[in-house]
Amino acid sequence: MVKKFGIIGNPIKHSLSPLLHNYWLKKYNVDASYSIIDVEENNLEEVVKKIKNKSLSGVNVTLPFKQKIVRFLEKIINDAEITGSVNTLFLGTEGTVTGENTDVYGLQAAYLKGIENAMNKKTLVIGAGGVSPSVIFSLEKSGIKNISITNRTHEKCLFLKKKFSYLNIFPWSNLQNEISNYDIIINATSLGLKDGKEFDFDFDKCKVNSIYIDTIYNPLKTKTFKFLEDKGIKVFNGLDMFIYQAQKSFYLWNRINPEIDDELINLLMSKLK
């Protein structure tokens, strides 16, 4: 039987997950397909049921469903237990619909392992949505605990502080002035996403030697990314994180650790120009 995989989220049309996973499925001769699954929040439980009855073999979860779908799962494991956020669903060995979080691994593998003297870096996470718990926990696993967070909805920051007590919180209205205090700045919002809204101010007060990481990969360079790059600041987009989290998802589903080769990178880049 042909396996069926897919991704849910909203907005979802920008996702390159089908292109990426179908490349690997073909390369490793896995009899399966991967597609965008159009689903509303009130139908999340139906997706879980389809994994249970094996009409779906696995599902990736992106914004805004990473936390909202957890209550329908029978089990969450590893990094998902800590973050309360999932991005990969599959049927476990005991027949339980299981949620895992591969975003934590993705961020670590893509960027954080290469930052020198990371433990002493003062870090700012912008945004408190679905990917933010993964960002915070990946920082913690990399030895970084001097972390501040801000979000347009203050209550979401308070919720995250219950999970990660070491977080410092400041109001969104202070963001433009506060960014000058940080060595690493991570955009964990959807601001800058293709065809979406941008930050309504520039980041001119960033330290010249700071690092800016954007969890967005489409477009490759958001307005803020370009502004900081032109200032000579070290910038990273979300493409590498996207690829590494997908690599781990693919392994969980197929027990194959897929290669990240030049052909794949060129394929993805061709869709992002």
Tell me briefly what this model is.
By secondary structure, the chain is of the alpha/beta class. Helices cover about 35% and strands about 15% of the residues. The chain has two domains: about 5-100 and about 240-270, Rossmann fold, CATH 3.40.50.10860; about 105-235, Rossmann fold (3-Layer(aba) Sandwich), CATH 3.40.50.
Topology:
Blueprint (H helix, E strand, L loop, with lengths): L2 E6 L8 H11 L4 E5 L7 H9 L5 E4 L13 E2 L2 H5 L4 E4 L5 E4 L2 H8 L12 E4 L5 H10 L5 E4 L3 H10 L4 E2 L5 H4 L5 E4 L23 E4 L8 H8 L3 E3 L2 H16 L7 H9 L3
Parallel strand pairs: 1-2, 1-3, 4-6, 7-8, 7-10, 8-9, 10-11, 11-12
Antiparallel strand pairs: 3-5, 5-6
Q: What descriptors fit this protein?
A:
Rossmann fold, 2 domains, 273 residues, alpha/beta, globular, 12 strands, six-stranded mixed beta sheet, six-stranded parallel beta sheet
Walk me through what this model shows:
The protein has two domains: 3-101 and 240-270, 3-Layer(aba) Sandwich (Rossmann fold); 105-237, Rossmann fold, CATH 3.40.50.720. The chain is built from ten helices and twelve strands. The protein has helices at 17-27, 44-52, 79-83, 103-110, 132-141, 154-163, 175-178, 223-230, 239-254, 262-270, and strands spanning 3-8, 32-36, 58-61, 75-76, 88-91, 97-100, 123-126, 147-150, 168-169, 184-187, 211-214, 234-236. The protein has a six-stranded mixed β-sheet. Helix 4 crosses helix 5 and helix 4 crosses helix 9 (239-254). It is globular, with a radius of gyration of 18 Å.
